[in-house]
Amino acid sequence: MSTLVRELKASYAFIERNYYIVKRYWAWELVWLVYTVANSLSISFIGVGAGQVSGGTGIDTSYLVLYLAIGTIVWRYLSVIFYWVTDVVGMERWEGTIEYTLMAPITRLMHMLGQTAFAVLYSLVHTAVVLAVTVLFFDISLQNANLLGFLMLLIAGSLSFIGISVFGAILPLLFPERGAQMTHLIIAGMLLVSGVYYPVTVLPGWLQPFAYLSPATYVLDGARETLLNGADTTSLWPFIWPLLLMGGVAIPAGLWAFREAERYAKRTGKLHRNG
């Protein structure tokens, strides 16, 4: 029990450390938040503009705005988790603490637990701000939305994205000079095939199967059912079970792969601070 308590305290230390990093660079955080809100609003305004560009016939602009807003908000939530977890190595290099962190007396599981817990909390706060501003700008009504079901989808999606993100965190570990840039290829691929701003059925036929390998597809489809159609929580199982399965496979596999990559990096001297 004492070992578990010590591990949990060490895990919480990463949450606290990340909080102080955000606090230290609060001006950058404010800039990034304003940029995110502006970007989200710009995408949602596409729905309003589509009615005018097409002559205002045959398009339910209110539905389109909400469709785009849901995609933007959900993708923001998932991508923030991805970047916080994949940047676990890059952040340590930036702070000059990579050697100390990877040699600290804490299991990699608890290390990643603290990192991912902060990522989820940080992403929830940012997502809440974006959602609030979007509702304010577009007078969106969520009276018929199933917010509990939406929250369940976000939690299930977090697990699967964490697993993928741990795999992504291996790249900066193995490739100090190019690894961080390589992680963008993963998130860009998921953005393309997941139906963030359009149904996956509009993709070329050869790309559509890849959509169902992305956890974001299930989160987005389920989120639109809950917020657009008010789907009952019990009807969300077809969206939730693939997310739980992906998370249940990807998280342990990612932790194992990260541990092996860490051993290789230590053995070959890739833990230097400057990539």
Task: Provide structural commentary.
The chain has 275 residues and is mostly helical. The chain has one domain (2-268). Helices cover 78% and strands 0% of the residues. It is built from eleven helices and no strands. The longest helix is centred in the last third of the chain and has 32 residues, at 237-268. The model has no long low-confidence stretch (mean pLDDT 85).
The largest pleated sheet is described as: none
What is the overall number of helices? 11
Relative helix content: over 70%
Q: What is the structural class?
A: mainly alpha
**Model regions low in confidence, pLDDT < 50 over at least 5 residues:** none
Q: What global shape is seen?
A: globular
Average pLDDT over all residues: 85
Range of strand content:
under 5%
Task: Give the topology string: H per helix, E per strand.
Answer: HHHHHHHHHHH
Helix and strand arrangement:
Layout (H helix, E strand, L loop, with lengths): L1 H23 L1 H28 L7 H26 L1 H8 L2 H5 L5 H31 L8 H28 L4 H15 L14 H4 L3 H14 L8 H32 L7
Helix pairs in contact: 1-6, 2-3, 2-6, 3-6, 3-7, 3-8, 3-10, 7-8, 7-10, 7-11, 10-11
List keywords for this structure.
mainly alpha; 11 helices; 78% helix; globular
